[in-house]
Design a protein that fits this description.
alpha+beta, MutS, DNA mismatch repair protein, domain I, DNA polymerase, domain 1, Dna Ligase, domain 1, four-stranded antiparallel beta sheet, three-stranded mixed beta sheet, 15 helices, 11 strands, 42% helix, globular
Length: 378
């Protein structure tokens, strides 16, 4: 989806069309930008930027408080469109997903035709714009979907993979950040074609196992399957920032939003998780994961967030580098049918369960209502 949160607000309030719209916290506090319209991006504004800084870049920007549950409801409507064409849907976030349509071609036509149909359905039925990438694998499809935003439609055929990849800068490869880009640049490698021509051994000497990863992507190789929610052994959400983030409060607020999305999906599939994991990637491309095994499985947003927050606050002081990616995942699922009732009632826990339940019901019945879990910094 193109500028998803901002596009939803502009759709619902047509007077905002053509104006710099920012969805996020207030600029007079410690708020951050959750989404920026393309008009706002022309001023250099991007997601996860402090709202106060965004206000300085564009004093006439229009700030709107986010309606996360409403966006989640619309995301569900988009998912309903996907499900018409294939059951193999792997969400990345509320506004992005992979679809495997190989088995759907006999019914709906080739991938290009399916992609056009999905894009048209989203526009006609929801009044929103999606960019679509059609390609032989995940990496190429993701790259294609980002290539011509907004309102893009890019197809990479199997025999055109290298012609598409070769002219692109190496920064377009998944995982190449500023530090890795600098290392490659120091060795005279600026394009994917130049990287592809290097022996794999040479890349592994310079970048370790990531050298193997980058070499495969430069060849257009990505063997990962599309894994639907029902088949998944874990549920996760992560986000890569347009610019590296140093502020702990900003990172924690982003982690809360990601946790809300994960918890909502857990409850939607009648699952509870026993294991919580966070992922943090720093500006030097060092990636750290931490996990915590819970005493009892849960789908309670607050419990999952507090567990993730504790791990995050332990990880951040151990690095002098800013953060370029943060994510949360849950695994080791139990199902509601297997749930054992506790011997003693935890009143505080029951309140949180009721809170999550009511929020889910309101989202399902009154999508326009705004319900957002707040977080107070220390």
């Amino acid at each position: 989806m193109d500028a998803f949160y901002a596009s939803v607000e502009v759709r619902d309030r047509p007077a905002l069309r053509g104006k710099p719209v920012l969805v996020g916290g207030a600029p007079d506090g410690r708020g951050v930008v959750a989404a920026a319209s393309y008009e706002a991006r022309q001023f250099g504004i991007h997601s996860a930027m402090p709202a106060a800084h965004a206000k300085r870049l564009c004093p006439h920007a229009i700030f709107i408080q986010p309606r996360h549950d409403y966006y989640a409801q619309i995301s569900g409507q988009i998912r309903g469109i996907f499900d018409r064409y294939t059951p193999l849907v792997e969400p990345l976030a509320l506004d992005e997903a992979f679809l495997d349509v190989a088995a759907s071609r006999s019914l709906w036509g080739e991938g290009t035709k399916i992609g056009q149909a999905i894009r048209r359905d989203i526009r006609d039925q929801l009044g929103l714009v999606a960019s679509v990438g059609v390609a032989p694998n995940k990496f190429l499809a993701k790259l294609a979907s980002d290539f011509d935003k907004p309102d893009g439609f890019v197809v990479i055929q199997s025999n055109d993979v290298q012609a598409f990849l070769d002219p692109l800068p190496v920064s377009r490869l998944w995982g190449v950040g500023k530090s890795t880009d600098r290392i490659l640049s120091d060795h005279g490698i600026a394009t994917i074609a130049q990287l592809r021509e290097l022996p794999e051994r040479a890349l592994k000497r310079r970048l370790g196992e990531w050298g193997h990863h980058f070499w495969r992507l430069a060849q257009g190789i990505d063997d990962r399957p599309v894994v639907s929610d029902r088949e998944a052994k874990s549920i996760s959400h992560e986000t890569t920032f347009a610019r590296d983030i140093e502020d702990v409060d900003t990172l924690t607020s982003v982690l809360l939003e990601l946790t809300e999305q994960v918890a909502h999906r857990l409850r939607g599939h009648q699952r509870r998780a026993r294991n919580v994991e966070i992922k943090v990637r720093f500006s030097d491309f060092t990636t750290i994961t931490r996990s915590k095994r819970l005493m009892q499985s849960t789908d309670v947003t607050r419990h999952l967030f507090h567990t993730a927050e504790k791990m995050l606050t332990k990880v951040l002081p151990n690095s002098s580098h800013a953060v370029r990616l943060v994510g949360i995942g849950v695994s080791m699922f139990d199902y509601d049918a297997d749930k054992q009732l506790p011997l003693f009632t935890d009143i505080a826990e029951q309140k949180q369960i009721k809170l999550d339940s009511i929020a889910d019901q309101i989202q399902d019945r009154f999508g326009v209502r705004s319900i957002h879990r707040g977080w107070k910094s220390r």
